[in-house]
Amino acid sequence: MTFTIQDVLIAADDAYTTVDVQVVDGKIAAIAPDLEVIGTAFNGTNKLLLPGFFNAHTHSSEMWQRGIMSAFPLELWLAELYDFAPLDTEKVYLSALGTAVETLLSGGTSVVDHLVLIPELELETIATAVRAYKEVGIRAFIAPLIQDESMTAGIPSGESAKTHEPYFRSTSATLAIIEEATRQFHRPDEGVYILVAPTGIQLCTDALFEGCIELSDRYNLCRHSHLLETKAQEKLAQEKYGCTAVEHLKRIGYLSDRTTLAHCVWLNDADIDIMAETQSTVVHNPLSNLRLGSGIAPILKYRQAGVNVTFGCDGASSNDSQDLLEAIKIGSILHNVTDSDYQHWITPQQAVEMASLGGAKGLNLADKLGSLTVGKQADLVLYDLTHLSLLPRTDPIGLLVLGRPHNVVDSAWVNGKQIVANGKVTTINVDELRQELFNRSQWETKRISESVAQIEAHYRTIMGL
Ligand SMILES: [Zn+2]
Fold first, then answer.
1. Could you tell me the distance, in angstroms and rounded to a whole number, from the CA of residue 19 to the centre of ligand 1?
2. Is the peptide bond preceding residue 73 cis, with omega within 30 degrees of 0?
3. Ligand 1 midpoint to CA 135 (Å)
4. What would the pLDDT profile of 203-251 be if each residue is shown by its tens digit?
5. Amidohydrolase-related domain location, by residue (predicted)?
């Protein structure tokens, strides 16, 4: 955990400079030219050093259904997803490994896993994901996905009042699971964090949100949730609360400077002001928003209002990969078509800062992570600038963000521990992982979802289709 990277390129204001970087006991100890070598020496020549990015919203087990999900909007897509998610803990383990590896090899050193829990095996699911992430060594923010209303409650009812099946697990039992998970697994010093993470207003009661706030305050946990991903959720919030989802979440106290909210597509200007005032963080998931037709989040408005924004891949069934560089690229240039004032467009340098410091801020760790700053933890990524996709030599960050870089991560460290070397994850056997993913799956095509058949007609009516 003590080493020196020599002659490495770093970004300094609008220029680049070549320096040595000393890391002592997992922390950045010095950044300057011609430092003495302490610990292991790494040759940084023709390489770019950046702080690790945050994959600030994903669902690891969706990896099992990537590439096969129908072209559906979220509400129908979720019904199909859950019909074909016969998960066991071994699959949870393998897809967490896969998510970690793909995140690392696209520049991420932290992952926020909004983890789908296997019913009746909730703590086992969490334990399995913790084990996988610890083996890989990526910094893991595990946000067990909880709800206390059944799936049909997530679709607006329209004119007729609808009744829904009660959810199979009580609100208090759900909160007890999160509290127990916190006691067993929340170990910030070891790079494992538990978050409170109700899935969203569409499937959660106030009692669940309030219980999560209480746990968050008691155990100093960050808060996570989906927020207004679809037009249907915007309608549902009006039905459920008579106001916007953001106004309601503010009223019950869920929004804060350690609350990250995935998607945030359907917020109005007053909502955006509330996001700024409460210092909440938006996690931008541009690929899943495109894939599910959810809409384009008003990211440039957030930035102008002073709202912190970072990036996520979202689960691999709605993406259908975990390539953080791809999410950063699309998530930064997508807004050039909706906002004509180019002076507000996101530059590659700003995109990198959003992906690193933006993620750290959202998780209340800006004093420890997210930038190349002496005293911060060494969560670092070294990019090979001699790779074909980063040539010829122009602006390294410009090409990293706007190009189509692949296999360009040479090394990565988390808390000063090297977990990627020479372009390969060194902590687990990735060939074995590939073999396991292959063996436990098969080539298939069209599937028929019974749940979709049950709700599709109602969904189409409600959405005027
Ligand atoms: Zn999600």
1. 39
2. no
3. 24
4. 999 999 999 999 999 999 999 999 999 999 999 999 999 999 999 999 9
5. 49-418
The beta strand positions in 67-106, using DSSP E, are none
Instruction: Kindly state the DSSP code that residue 371 receives in the 8-state scheme.
Output: S
Strand ranges of the sheet holding 108-116, from the earlier edge strand across to the other edge:
53-58, 108-116, 139-145, 192-194
Q: What is the CATH number of the domain that holds 406?
A: 2.30.40.10
In angstroms, what is the span from residue 125 Cα to ligand 1's centroid?
Answer: 18
Q: Give me the mean pLDDT over the 246-266 stretch.
A: 98
Residues 46, 58, single domain; the answer is no
Closest CA to 266 of 238, 242, 297: 297
Q: Which pLDDT score is estimated for 168?
A: 94
Residue 126 CA to ligand 1 center (angstroms) comes to 17
Locate 397 and state its tokens. Answer: 């960050």
- Please give the residue range of the domain that contains residue 340: 52-362
Q: Are residues 240 and 151 in the same domain?
A: yes
Query: Can you tell me whether residue 449 is helix, strand or coil?
Result: coil
Over residues 279-308, the pLDDT tens digits come to 999 999 999 999 999 999 999 999 999 999
Distance (angstroms) between ligand 1 centre and the Cα of 39 equals 41
Phi and psi for 280 in degrees, rounded to 5?
-75, 155
Q: Where does 34-137 show beta strands of DSSP type E?
A: 40-43, 47-51, 53-58, 108-116
* Distance from Cα 343 to the centre of ligand 1, integer Å: 31
Give the pLDDT band (50/70/90) at residue 85: confident
Residues 44 and 60 in one domain: no
Assess contact for 417 and 424: CB atoms under 8 A: no
